[in-house]
Amino acid sequence: MLPEPAVRRPWRVFAAMAVGVVAVFLNMSGLTVALPTITRELEASPGQADWILLGYMLVTTSLILVFGRIADIVGRRRLYLAGLVVFTAATALAALSPTAEFLIAARIVQAVGAAAVITNNTALLTDTFPAQTLGRALGWNVTVAAVAQIAGPVVGGAATELLGPRGLFVVCVPIGLIALVASALVVPRTRRSGGVREPFDLPGAALSVAVLTALVLAMTPGATATDAAWLPWVCGCAALALFAVFVVVQERRPHPLVDMALLRTPAISLVFAAVLANAVSTYAVVLLASLHEQAVGGATPLEAGVLVTPVAVGTLITSAAAGSLFGRCTPRALTTVGMAVTACGLLGFTLTLSATVAQPRAVAPFFLFLVGAGTGLFMTPSTSALMLGVPAGRRGVANGLRSTLQNVGYLLSTALALAVTTTGLSAPARQAAYEGTLNVLASGELSRFVANIRLTGFVLTGIAVAGTAICLAFPTSLRPPRAADPSGATDPFTATDPSTTVGRSTPAGQSTAGDHEPATSRKALP
C-alpha cells in the first residue's frame, strides 16, 4: 500500500492518534493497582484474577505480528479504526461486567482491539509525516505513551476509589470514543500498490499463539481450573515442543511470520536477548509493589498508584537524556549502565520489603525510580543499536520482532510474579492476597507472602544482572552513524551474515517505521 499525497496538517492526525495511545496505555498500566478491588468486588478466584491480567497480555502479544500482516491485506487505516471500535466497545462491556468471567472475556476482546491500535499507530504516522518531521513525530508519540503509563496507576487508583472497581474502564470509554471519531475524520486513507501480495503465514500465527499459551499455563499453575501437579510440567514440555515446531516452520516458509535470518546474526541476537531480559526483569515490579502495599499495608488503590509512579517518571526522564547521550556514547556503554542501574534498583527495592510498610514507604520510591531510570537509559540505545545493526530495508522487520519480544517479556514477567508470590499460601491466604486483605490473616501467612515477593524480586534482579552481561557483549562496532565513508566500506556488524541483504522479502508485512526515507521512496507500512 502507498500513502496518499502529503497530508496538509499531519499534526492533526498525530493529535487524534495520540488520544488512542492514551486510551490503550491508561488501560494497560492502570489496572494493576485496581486488581485487588476488582478481585474483591467481583468475588474472583485467584485463577480468575490471574487471567484478568494475563488474558489481555497474552492476546495482545500474540496478535502484534499477526495484525502487522493483516493490515497489509485489509489496509492500515481500516484495521486501526476497527481496532478502536473493538477496544472501546469491549471497554464498555468491561465497565458493565457483572462477574469475573464476563470481565475476562471482555478483556480478551479488548486486547484484540488494542493490538490493532498498537500495530498500526507508528505505521500510519510514517505514512502521514514527511521525512523532515517524521522523527520528531515518532519521538512525541513515544512521549505520549510514556506519559499515559505514568498517569495510569494514579488514574486507575483514583477512578477505582471514586467510581468503583470498574472505574478505570468507565474513564477509558469516552477517551476511546474521542479517539475513534477524531481518527475517522483526519487519518488519511491509503491506496494499494500494484505489487504482488505476500501470503499470510497462518501456521506460524497459530503456532505462536499456542507456544505463548502453553508457556503461560506452565508458569502460572493457579491460572488453570485444576490443581493437578502434573499440568504445569505437561504445559512446559508442550511449549518447548511447539516452539521447536514453530522454528522449523518459520525456516521453511517463503514468507514467515518471523524472519529467522535476523536471529542467526550473533550481534543482533544479543540485542534481542537484552531487550527480553530488560522486559522480564522490570515489568512486574509495579505489580509487586502494588500487591505489597495493598495486601500487606492496606493501602488504597490511589495510594498504591502514587507509590509506583516513580518507575514511569524515571523512565521518562532518562529516555529523553539517553537520546542526547547517544551521539557521544556507544550503545554498549549506555545499555550496560542502564541494566546495571535497573539491577541496583530491583535489589534495593527487594531488600526494603517487610511485613510492615513503614520502611518500604519511606525508601521504596527511590529504588523504584532507579528501576525506571535504568529502563529509560536502556530503551533508546538498545533500539538504536538494533537499527544500526540491520540494513535500512530490514529495520521494520527487526523492530517488529523487538516489539514482540518486549511484549513477551512483559507477559512472562507478570506470569512469574503471579506464580511465585502466592506459592505455598493456603487457599484463603491466596484469595486475601489478591483482594488486598492479607494483613487481616495470621502473621505466618503474611510473612510467607512477603518472602515470596522478595524471592520474586531476587529472581528479577538476577535476570537484570544477566541482561547487564549481555549488554557488555555488544560489539564495539555498534555506535552512532558517522560521516559517510568515502571508501564505501561495509559495516562489519551488518556484514556478519550474508542473509541480511536487503533483497530478501519482508515477512509478515511488518513495519518499516525505523526507515526515515523520503516520502516519495519510503515503503508504506502495514
What does this structure look like?
The protein has 526 residues and is mainly α. It contains 17 helices and two strands. It has helices at 10-41, 46-74, 76-95, 100-128, 131-163, 167-186, 202-219, 230-252, 260-263, 266-283, 285-296, 301-325, 331-352, 358-389, 395-421, 427-435, 443-472, and strands at residues 2-3, 190-191. Helix 2 runs antiparallel to helix 15 (395-421), helix 10 runs parallel beside helix 15 and helix 13 (331-352) runs antiparallel to helix 17 (443-472). The protein is globular, with a radius of gyration of 22 Å. The model is unreliable at 1-5 and 483-526 (pLDDT under 50).
Main beta-sheet annotation: 2 strands, antiparallel
Number of helices: 17
Q: What would the average pLDDT be, to the nearest integer?
A: 79
- Please provide the ordered H/E string of secondary-structure elements: EHHHHHHEHHHHHHHHHHH
- Strand pairing plus helix content: what structural class? mainly alpha
DSSP E strands, number: 2
| Percentage of residues assigned to helices | over 70%
How are the strands ordered across the major sheet?
A: 1-2
Distance between the termini: 8 Å
Task: Describe the structure concisely.
This protein has 526 residues and is mostly helical. It contains 17 helices and two strands.
Describe the structure using short key phrases:
single chain, 526 residues, mainly alpha, two-stranded antiparallel ribbon, 2 strands, globular, disordered N terminus, disordered C terminus
Topology:
Layout: E1 2-3, H1 10-41, H2 46-74, H3 76-95, H4 100-128, H5 131-163, H6 167-186, E2 190-191, H7 202-219, H8 230-252, H9 260-263, H10 266-283, H11 285-296, H12 301-325, H13 331-352, H14 358-389, H15 395-421, H16 427-435, H17 443-472
Antiparallel strand pairs: 1-2
Helix pairs in contact: 1-2, 1-4, 1-5, 1-6, 1-12, 2-3, 2-4, 2-7, 2-15, 3-4, 3-6, 4-5, 5-6, 5-12, 7-8, 7-15, 10-14, 10-15, 10-17, 11-12, 11-16, 11-17, 12-14, 13-14, 13-17, 15-17
